Amino acid sequence: MSAALLQAFSMVFEPYTILVMVLASLYGLFVGAVPGLSATMAVALLVPVTFFMQPIPAIAAMVTATAMAIFSGDIPGCLLRIPGTPASAAYTDEAFAMTRKGMAETALGAGLVFSAVGGLFGTVVLIVAAPALADFALNFSSFEYFWLVLLGLTCAVFITSDRPLKGMITLLLGLLVACVGLGNPAGFPRFTFGNAEMTGGIGMIPMMIGMFAISEVIRFAVDTLPPGEVVVEKVGSVLSGQWALAKKYPVQILRGSLLGTAVGALPGAGADIAAWMSYAMSKKFSKEPEKFGTGHVEGIVESGSANNSALAGAWIPALVFGIPGDSITAIVIGVLYMKNLNPGPTLFTTNPQNIYAVFMLFIIANIIMVPLGILCIKVAKRILRVPRNVLMPLILLFCIVGAFAINNSLFDVGVMLVAGMVAYLLEENGFPIAPAILGVVLGGMLEENFITSMIKSDGNLAGFVSRPIAASLAAVVLLVWLAPLLKKLWLRGRRTASSTAA
User: Fold this and answer.
1) Residue 52 · residue 70 · CB < 8 Å
2) Cβ neighbours of 237 (radius 10 Å)
3) Residues 300-334 pLDDT 10s
């Protein structure tokens, strides 16, 4: 273990890796601070660059860019009332109300400091939980993996959408895309329509670049709203008063960090859902709920802790089971496979130095977030004045070059453009795209484990519940499926009982 730790230390603290982290941090801060450019988009655009890196610097770039982008999304939300990333949307009105009261420094400082605290908390949970889960997962067979993947897909539908039917439709769309090509247990060409390019399947990375980056370019092209105006001329010291806030709201910090890590670990959830849930919980349990919405820092403290702790939480299922906790780790899993760091419990036994390096990267990313975040806040006005009509064509060009560079194929560029158009149309009509991404990532794993399990059990479906862990997971999946129906029946029973009593 000590040898693996020393090896991880040498990989993380070599000058090249540190330089990559600094550059990725600045890039993530910039992308997050520009309204409309999400953390997922920042990671998707980084993928072509990681082709030329060793595994640890590649992971370092994605970890630091993500952490910085999630925080810096608070800046335009606070100064413009336009959230930079979806994770910042939960408390944008609160932060903007504080800015109008002359408290922009407090709002931005709370977002920065408690994002770092939440990120470090999530990292500690990742360090403790992931190896223990990996030991447990070594007992898993194809039966357990089948139910686990099915549970992940189910959670993606119910968590990421307030309309599960729409989530189910986009999930099925993602599963359909996963069926394309020869990469199935039978090795039979499916949905290729005689096109040789499609026998290899639809490329996951071009598709993700399209769904998260091209869709934003299209959205900008059709947007007719004028840009917002920065309402403060100068931002003062953002760290003053933060220690007092930490002493005043310790329960909120811990609660936000715990909730964020737990939500992040659920497949398909991610930082944005963690932030909304945390803000709602903060208001519900607050001693001063009437102050929420008027410029009250309590909700920002708790939600800020939640959105960054969710990032580390999302890596737990990604590293242990190969099941992405959010759309960012879905992209990361693709990069890990490209770097021959196949996610799964064996990763912890065959390459422990790489796992220790990932843990160190998370710690460093959350520590350097504070000084670099202060720098970003100081130059926020200049970042926010970058013309979008200059930025978007550059992003489009980078997307095209990145998609082409994966396989030197124009077909991948076409996949990216079509995926971008489809994602734009879906989102404009209220369909969440996260279930579609999870369908693409997990579709092959679901089918492979199902076929393998059927072969093992000689076609007997009882084999899927013959093992204790498999039976437990099956029960959880069925409970999640039946929960909406049971809730509806219970409410109907209560209404009937109350009407009878009346």
Assistant:
1) no
2) 10
3) 888 888 888 988 888 888 888 888 877 788 888 88
Residues, the chain: 502
Both tokens of 139, joined, read: 């007992």
Looking from the CA of 320 toward its CB, the CA atoms found within 13 Å total: 28
Taking the C-alpha atoms of residue 330 and residue 153, their distance in angstroms, rounded to an integer, is: 13
Q: How far is CA 52 from the centre of its chain?
A: 24
Give the pLDDT score at 229.
52
Instruction: List pLDDT tens digits, range 95-107.
Output: 888 888 888 888 8
Q: What's the pLDDT at 444?
A: 82
> Cα separations (Å) of 73 from 7, 181, 254?
35, 38, 22
3-state secondary structure of 429: coil
Name the token pair of 343. 């996610």
- Can you tell me the distance from the alpha carbon of 342 to that of 320, in angstroms, rounded to the nearest whole number? 10
Decide which of 158 and 68 is more confident.
68
| Residue 444, both tokens | 């092959």
Describe the crossing of helices 55-72 and 298-321 by its angle, rounded to 10 degrees.
160
Q: Would you list the DSSP string of 113-151?
A: HHHHHHHHHHHHHHHHHHHHHHHHHTT--HHHHHHHHHH
Cβ atoms within 10 Å of 335's Cβ, excluding its own: 21
Helix (H) or strand (E) holding 499, with range, is helix 468-501
Q: Which residues contact 22 (CB under 8 A, 6 or more apart)?
A: 368, 372
Q: How far apart are CA 207 and CA 213, in angstroms?
A: 10
Quick one: how far is CA 468 from the chain centroid? 31
CB half-sphere exposure, 488, CA atoms < 13 A: 5
Per the structure block, which two tokens stand in for 456? 């093992």
In this prediction, residues 347-359 reach a mean pLDDT of: 86
- HEC profile for 201-229? CCCHHHHHHHHHHHHHHHHHHHCCCCCCC
Determine the Cα–Cα distance for residues 84 and 256; give it in Å rounded to an integer: 20
Name residues whose C-beta falls within 8 Å of residue 211's C-beta, 6 or more positions apart in sequence.
Answer: 419, 420, 422, 423, 433, 436, 437
- Nearest alpha-carbon partner for 303 in 34, 84, 70, 80: 70
- Encode pLDDT of 368-411 as tens digits: 988 988 888 888 767 767 777 777 888 788 788 877 876 788 88
Instruction: Write out the DSSP string of 382-419.
Output: HHHTS-HHHHHHHHHHHHHHHHHHHHT-HHHHHHHHHH
